[in-house]
Every structure is written in structure tokens, then in C-alpha cells.
Amino acid sequence: MDDTAALVRAAADGDAGAWKELYHRYSGLVWAVARAYLPTPADAQDVAQTTWFRFAEHLTRIRDPDKTGAWLASTARNEALRVIRTSGRVIPVSDVGLMGFDVDERSPERLLLDAEEADAEAERAREVWAAFEEMSERCRRLLRVLIASPRPTYQEVATGLGIAVGSVGPMRGRCLKRLGVLVARRGVTGTSRDFE
Amino acid sequence: MDDGFDLEDELRNIAHLLDPVPPELLDDAMQAFTLRTLDAELALLEFDSWDEEPATRVRGPASPRLLTFRAGEVVVELEVSGSRLVGRVLPGEAADIGVQRRDSELRLRSDDLGRFTAAPLPPGPLRLRVTPREGGPVVTSWIRV
Questions:
Q1: Residue A56 in domain
Q2: Distance CA A19, CA A117 (A)
Q3: Which residue of B has its CA nearest to A178?
Q4: Which of B12, B16, B55 minimises the CB distance to A85?
Q5: What are the tens digits of pLDDT across the range A141-190?
Q6: How many domains does the structure of chain B reveal?
Q7: Can you give the residue range of the structural domain that contains B84?
Q8: Residues A30 and A52 sit within 8 Å (Cβ to Cβ)
Q9: Do both A188 and A114 map to the same domain?
Q10: Which end of chain B is less crowded, N or C, counting CB atoms within 10 A of the terminal residue's CB?
């Protein structure tokens, strides 16, 4: 049930709600492609901003609205490559601060339990992310785009990375397996399901 | 058989926490929608010197960025150096130019050869709206300066 084409047509006719829906559908993908290439969040934000401006001006000119996601992924990729080509700076990914977990009007005991649980979850999240950042550039890029939310199609992933669509599945398998090994090597406890 | 879906989902959740889409981008996107052009022809970017430069070259005031846009017979050439913009519209003649940014528009008029300058330019998206003496208005594709 792909109604993207209908949303594109509605937005082209001036429906701001349809445009917002398109944004929510693809903002994760655009951001993920930009971040796959650019370690500096400010650069990625510039790229994402430019991508949305380009998309707005192309609304009425998109030849194949069903491929909107691929168009956005490709535009974000081109803009990101433009930044890389001209900046001459590729800075290693910095430590990303972990966000606080909100706790509120619960009993002190409950709060303590929750805090311990949250600590364990946060610890695992940090370790998994560190393992992810340790991976080869190929795997990091592929997984960063793949884990956009909502999950992109393999075609969108392939376009965002300039690779053949047939290679996405096999690469995904290899990279996730490798990530699992790296996570295990870090001696992290807990399973994926513990993290919510 | 484990296809890695648990790990993939977990990584997706972590990315959502540690590397989320910046919330300001929604405002940018809504603004882009508001500013979309309804009444002018789009002049597409045909050349951008940033696409040509080798990776080793560092972007800076020493190397101005050259851009060419075209819509039919109308060509817009731009040179961006630092926060200064020098441009030329072809065919070369006096034309009304709007330098459009996110929140503002600087209106100016090119000289008889189609030349114009604008400065200073704060960073951000930029496009030009050109109204030639003959024919309808043209807007360039957005670029980022």
C-alpha cells in the first residue's frame, strides 16, 4: 500500500499536510544517508536541509513519484559527496553524549530500580554503538542507512550508497554478523530485547 | 534462523537515541514547502565547481565557487567567494534580480550587461529569482552558501 505517489501529487497541489507526511516518512532516510557520509552532525544537517529545499522545488517535476525515497536518498548522497569533495576534512566521529532518561513521580524504590535498569540499558546501548562505530566504513555506511526509521527499502539503501540493490541483502547479513561479534567481544550483557 | 533482525532493530533504536534527526529540520522542510516556486520556470544547476575540485583542495576564500544555472535561453552565472556573490544573467541586459534566502529577499537590478553583486551573504540556502525584460520569471535551484 504505497501511497507516496498520491502524497507527492497532493503536496504538489499545495497540501501542506501531505508534505509534512512525506517529511515524516523520509526525514529518517535523508538524515541517515547524510550521516553515513558525514561524521560532523552540522555538515549532515546542512545536507539534509538542502535536500528538503531541492525536493520542494522538484515536487511538480518528479518523474516517478513512486521512487521518491530513492530520489531523496540520491540527492542527499550527492550533496554529502559535494561536502566531502570540497571540505577536505573528514573528522572522526566524536563521542555522542547519551541522553538522560526521564524519571518522574514514582516511588523512590521504583525510581532506583528504574535507574539501575536504565543504567544497564544505557550501558549496553553505548557499547553496541561503540561497536558499530568500530566497524569498517563499508559496514558503517550500509548499516547507518539501513537503520533509518522507518526502515528504508533495499532500493532506497542502494541508491543512498551508490551500490547495486542486489548487494544490500548479503552485505547486511555480513555486517550484522560482524557487529554481533564485536558486541560479544566487548562482553556486553543483555540481549537486544532488553533494550527498548 | 537468526537473520539479525533483533540486532538491526536494536541498532535502529539506539540510533534514534544517540543520533536522532535534528528537530529543526522539520521547520526547514516546512519553510522549503512554503517557498516552493509556483509561477516561475526552474533554472537547473548545470555546473558547480565544487563538483570538479579534487578532494585534496581545501575550500576557502582562495577558490571562489562557480555555478551555472539554465532555464531555456536564460543562463545565470554565479561566483561565490566568501560571503560575496557576483553574478551575470544571459542574455546580458538589465534584469530584476531577487536574492532569496530562507527568511528574506534582497532585490536588485543588474546592469546593462546583466551583471550584479550582492554581499554580505550569511550561510544558508540561497536562490535567485530573475525577471528578464522579455519572457517570464526564472528561479534557480537552491544552493547552499
A1: yes
A2: 39
A3: B4
A4: B55
A5: 999 999 999 999 999 999 999 999 999 999 999 999 999 999 999 887 66
A6: 1
A7: 39-144
A8: yes
A9: yes
A10: N
Pairing label, strands B143-144, B84-90: unpaired
**pTM here?**
0.81
Residues A73 and A123 in one domain: no
A160 within 8 A of A76, measured Cβ to Cβ: yes
Q: Residue for cell digits 548479503? A: A170
Residue B88: strand, helix, or coil: strand
Domain count, chain A: 2
Backbone angles phi, psi at A100, to 5 degrees: -70, 150
pLDDT one-digit tens code per residue, B55-95 = 545 555 467 889 999 998 899 999 998 889 999 999 899 99
pLDDT by residue (tens digit) across A27-70?
999 999 999 999 999 999 999 999 999 999 999 888 899 899 99
CATH code of residue A22:
1.10.1740.10
Domain coverage including residue A73: 4-87
CB contact under 8 A, A88 and B58: yes
Asked whether residue A29 is assigned to any structural domain, the reply reads yes
A positions 35-74 inside 8 Å of B (CB): 35, 41, 45-46, 48-50, 52-57, 59, 61
B141–A52 CB contact, under 8 Å: no
User: Counting one residue from A and one from B, how many pairs have CB atoms under 8 Å apart?
Assistant: 142
* A127 CB within 8 Å of a chain B CB: no
Question: In angstroms, rounded to a whole number, what is the distance separating the alpha carbons of residues B84 and B127?
Answer: 14
The cell for A141 is 555506511
Residue A100 lies in a domain: no
Contacts of A57 in chain B (CB under 8 A): 32, 36-37, 42, 139, 141-142
Q: Which residue of B has its CA nearest to A36?
A: B19
**Cβ contacts (< 8 Å) between A183 and chain B: which residues?**
7
- Which chain B residue's Cα is nearest to A142? B8
A179 lies in some domain: yes
What stretches of chain B show up as alpha helix (H) in DSSP? 5-18, 24-34
